[in-house]
Structures are given as C-alpha cells and as structure tokens.
Amino acid sequence: MSAVTHEPGSRRMVLTASGLPLLIGLTVVLFGLHIAVGAKHLPLATVLEAIVNRDATVFDHMIIWDLRLPRALIALTVGAALSVAGALMQGVTRNPLADPGLLGLMAGASFAVVIVSFFFGPAALYWLPWIAALGALVTALVVYFIAHWAPGGPTPLTLTLSGAAISAFLGAIISIAHLLNEDSFDNLRIWLSGSLAGRDISMLYVTGPWIAVALIAGLALARQVTALAMGDDVAKGLGVRTGPLKLQLLGVVVVLTACSVTLAGPMGFVGLVIPHIARLFVGSDYRWIVPYSAVIGAAYLLGVDIIARVAIPPREISTGIITAMVGAPVFIQLVRMRAK
C-alpha cells in the first residue's frame, strides 16, 4: 500500500532529476552555437578544436578565445545568477512578480556605479562589484522600509510598487547625470542598456568567484526557502529560523545581482521569467526550482544573445533590449494571472 501511495511522487522525482541533465546538454549545445555564430560563422568542429587544442597562430582560434568565448562565459554566468536571484526573491517574499529588476536592486546597483563614476571618474575594476553591491543593498532596504510603512505592511503588492517607484526615481537621476556630462558617460551608455558586447574577461575573473559562492549558498538554502514560501509560521513550525535565513538570502541575492550588473549592466526580466518556466517543470519545490532556474537562465541568455547578434546584421542589438522585448509580454501575462 505504501509503495503504491508513493509511486506517483517517486516517478515525478525521477522525471525531475532526469530532466536536469537534458537541460544541461541543451545549454552546452547553445554554448557552442553562441561561439560559432557571428560576423564570421565558424563550424562547430572548429569551435571544439579551438577549445580543446588551442593554436594561437590560427586566426579562428584567436577570434574564439579573445572575443567569443569570454562573451559566452559571461552570458552563461549572468543568466544563471539573475535567474537564481529571482527564484530566491520570489520564494522569500512569496511574490511571484519579484525579481532583482522589479524590486529595485538592479537600478540601485546601476545607480551606485554611475554616481561613483560621475563624482570620482571610472572606478577600478576590483571595486565595481562592491560599489554595485552597496547600491543594491541600500536600495533593497529602502524598498522594504517604504513597503513596511505602507498600509498593510510589506505585502507582495506594496513591495512591487515600492520597487517600481524607486527604480523609476533612480533611473531619472541616472538620466540627469548622463545629460550633465554626456562625454564621461558615453562608455556607460551601452552598458546601461544591458549589453554583453565588448565585456572584458578580467571582469569575470573578479566577479566569478563571488557568483560561484553565492550560487552554492543559494542551492544550500533552497530547501529552507521551500518552507519559507509556505509562510513564516509554517517555516517556524518546521524548525526554520526565518530571521537569519532571510538575511542570508538577502546577501546571496545582493551578490548575484551586483556581480551580474557589473558584468553586463541591468538585464531586465531574466530573474522574473525564468523561475516561472522552471516551475512548469518541477512544481513548487525550491530544491529543484533553484538548479533548474540556473540552467534554464544560462541557456536563455545564451539564446537571447545569439538573437541580439544576428537579428539586424551587421548591427547588433543590446541583449537587455531583447530580454525586455521577450520578458514584457510574459510579465503582462503573469499580472493577468495574479489578477484572476
């Protein structure tokens, strides 16, 4: 009787576990295509040969190692980081519309980088993640306190409205700073639109270890996020210390968001859309939502960046514009579903 009772759950667990390797395989294929596609199309065999047996005298290998491989690695990293950040935020706030962009963290990170550049000039590469993290953290606290003072407290609706208002306000200040000194901000103009073009691999060397630590921490905390998503009272009843857990999750989300903004600028809707796609496969268990979001997010940003590069040749569209064009209709559909 017991075996019969647990059979559907066991079958679902097997299907969920087997789906992850398939998605990883798809991501590897997209990674190869991302490197192969461009102004000069390269065969996948050449891509594989360059990665396995690099020859610095071969021009195609130089293109791959100096230009395309860094961009593909950054797309992979940013997609995974923003998706996991969005999944954790949706779990801890119990808000299906939460993501680093909508709740203001991305705007805060961008604002901090822009303001430091405005007053002190371009910051050293090493300091950029810390500056962005400070901006994201302060913005998250401001959004929370504004929502806390609103009638009804920090509900999903008040958090979303507070985040949208703060994002718009910071965006206006960034625009004013840009108008006051267009020459100094010319280098930031493309970055602020969310772009993977011309990113320096050394930025990944600085931010990569922090993102790796934050992703591991997110995976480790995922089981407790499942309990937290059922409500604070339920989580406490299951033995979860909700206060310390929320602080740890805030730290993870801030690091993932700040490092992603440092690498590629504000990339909207990735953290909002991808966790919902992950739930279609795995349900509401964050032990699976978090790793699925990481893999799907990485594959998604690789695919979107391919579109950004080939949509209107020879020009290139900022990747952030494509993510917004794809994410906006999904966001509208989510709002409609919540309104029903």
What composes the largest sheet? Answer: none
- Order of helices and strands, N to C? HHHHHHHHHHHHH
**Mean pLDDT score, rounded?**
85
Fraction of residues in β-strands: under 5%
Broad structural category: mainly alpha
* End-to-end Cα distance: 39 Å
Descriptive terms for the model:
ABC_BtuC-like, transmembrane helix, cell membrane, globular, 0% strand
Condensed summary:
The chain has 13 helices and no strands. By secondary structure, it is mainly α. This is Iron ABC transporter permease.
Commentary on this structure:
- This protein is mainly alpha-helical and 340 residues long.
- Helices cover 78% and strands 0% of the residues.
- The protein contains 13 helices and no strands.
- α3 (59-93) crosses α11.
- It starts with a helix and ends with a helix.
- The relative contact order is 0.16.
- Its main location: membrane.
- Pfam families: FecCD.
- Keywords: Cell membrane, Membrane, Transmembrane, Transmembrane helix, Transport.
